Amino acid sequence: MQRLHQEQRNGLGRLSGAVGAMLLALSLAGCVTSGGATTGTTQASANQPQTLSAPVAALPSWRDGAAKQAIEQFVADVTRPGSASYVPPAERIAVFDNDGTLWSEQPLYFQFIFMLDQVKAAAPQHPEWKNNLAFKALLAKDTSALASQPKALLELLAVANSGMTVEAYDKTIRDWLAQARHPKFNRPYTDLVYQPQLELLAYLRAHGFKTFIVSGGTIEFMRPWAEKVYGIPPEQVIGSSQLVKYEMQNGQPALVRQPKIDFVDDGPGKPVGIYRNIGRKPILAFGNSDGDLQMLQYTASGSGPHLALLVHHDDAEREFAYDRASKIGKLDHAWDQALASGWTVVSMKNDWQTIYPSIKP
């Protein structure tokens, strides 16, 4: 029991640390908001799930180079019957981080922007918040004051994103994604997925892989749209989670969100989440930050075939450029490990011909 309590404290500590990093990023982003409901580009057809019977081009948005060659060679080796590296289809598990790996994450994690909007939307039902220093700072866009109130802000976020059924919360997420726009690109957030990664997901599935999301973001935020956008069904989305309680409402069973974190799927939590939810070690893992380090180490451990990949955000013109000094998606220790261990580092600038669907270089 003592160990369980310590693990819970560690998980909350990582969550508080993440909130602290976001608060620092808020000062750089100017307390960004989701924007109005202006018309955005529709989702590209490449985002739709592809069946195994459909012919899949060999990563057309990837430039020929070491990264693409490493992927194609690995897939060929593990899927060729008789190969020394052959892996049966049931064991072809590929795991992908979400934020910064499958879609953008700057200037703030998209889910964090959503949760901040939820605080503002819930304010009329919480008149007691008018005396809350974190709420005052949030309304005033006072980043210095917010940075000094991480625990209070975390409590606001928990309350504003709980108390409703899981179905009601699902609808809230869908409604927000339908109208919210990214502050830089003025496009729906689900448009800001990476075309090369959509192709890679389809390419892997066409070769018998099962693809999973393993993210520090919550399963509640990702599951409503992941299947439509990535072709990854809800049961293959692993993430952080908030406590849910079963109760009866008006004579009907309901699952109600509680203001308490249940599991933090980040850093060392990712291999734990993989073990609990998949039960097999992945043979391919793709991340972009230090939060993915342990997932990549776990995938690369042992003697079997494996491929560990990192996206390096080095394209300020088409997306963003950041790595070691970033407050969001910091790539530092994982980069060092990649260089030391021979992991594949994918340059967004040099390896990807296209970043987003329907946007050409």
* Percentage of residues assigned to helices: 40-55%
H-E order = HHEHHHHHHEHEEHEHEHEH
Strand order of the largest sheet: 4-3-2-1-5-6-7
Output the radius of gyration: 20 Å
Please give the largest β-sheet. 7 strands, mixed
CATH topology, by name, is: Rossmann fold
Tell me the number of structural domains.
1
Q: What's the average pLDDT?
A: 88
**Derived structural class:** alpha/beta
**Span between termini:** 55 Å
- Report the strand count: 7
- Please name the fourth-level CATH homologous superfamily: HAD superfamily/HAD-like
**Shape designation:** globular
The total count of helices amounts to 13
Q: Under the CATH scheme, which class? A: Alpha Beta
Low-confidence stretches: 1-5, 36-56
Strand content: 5-15%
